[in-house]
Amino acid sequence: MFNKLEIIINYFKRNPPLIAGLSILIMFLLFWLYFFLIIDPNHAKPLSFRPSQSPSSVHLFGTDRLGKDVLTSIIIGTPQTLQIGIIAGTIGVVLGMIFGFISGYYGSYIDYIIKFIVDIFQSIPPLVILVIIAISIPGDMTIMQLSLIVGITSWLGPTRVFRSQVLVIKELNYVVLAKFSGINSIKIIFYEILPNLMPYIMANFVMSVAGAILASIGIEALGLGAFSSNSLGMTIYWNIWYSSLLQGWIRWWLPPIIIIILLFVSLYLISQGLDEWANPRLRTKI
User: Fold this and answer.
1) What is the pTM of this model?
2) Could you tell me the CATH number of the domain that includes residue 198?
3) What range defines the domain where residue 140 resides?
4) Is this entry keyworded Isomerase (predicted)?
């Protein structure tokens, strides 16, 4: 047990990107938690205050054109954006695992069909697909609907990654031996292949979350998001709608931009740190 703990500690010591990414994310979450405990969620509702108030002791970042406290809106909206990223990222990775494992392991015409579908959809800009699906949703969009829309379009990249890894692993001696031993294919996938792909799955999940957040922000910035939410993407949409950049309302548009940058930097560094674990060429000892 102590030996494993020492290995983990040494892994973190020689992995500055992972430490930096986790540190940024943890500090960000602590700051968010502090403000979440002292704010009133009702202050993030439209017309809670007089619109366009300047920063003060009551409103640290002032109020926006909708009459919402800017700080409260950001504190309430950040977990909504993360929720979209986590749900959509999970859906994308799970679907990618299913199709990637099936395609890579069974090969033949199944591999050809899945590859063909992936190639077709990857030739279309993802934002175009998202917009087409989003405008087809009747009524007001919800956070969950947006998460599902982004999620079902996020499986293409993971499918390619997992397929390529399964193609390599299934030719290794212990997998070939398991096949000759008559072990069921499902058991081979779950007990022989899947454990060896966990590093790739974790690294891919982190990047899928980041990609899903970016995709959701793009959809929301176009006015196709959940108007009842305070997500970072909807905050950017209202900034665009009211031309806050041209109006010089830096206190309204800058905070969500900073938070988005911090989230992406932390997730990118974490994924880079996990790459040593996932990539045998970079790994020295895990």
Assistant:
1) 0.88
2) 1.10.3720.10
3) 60-278
4) no
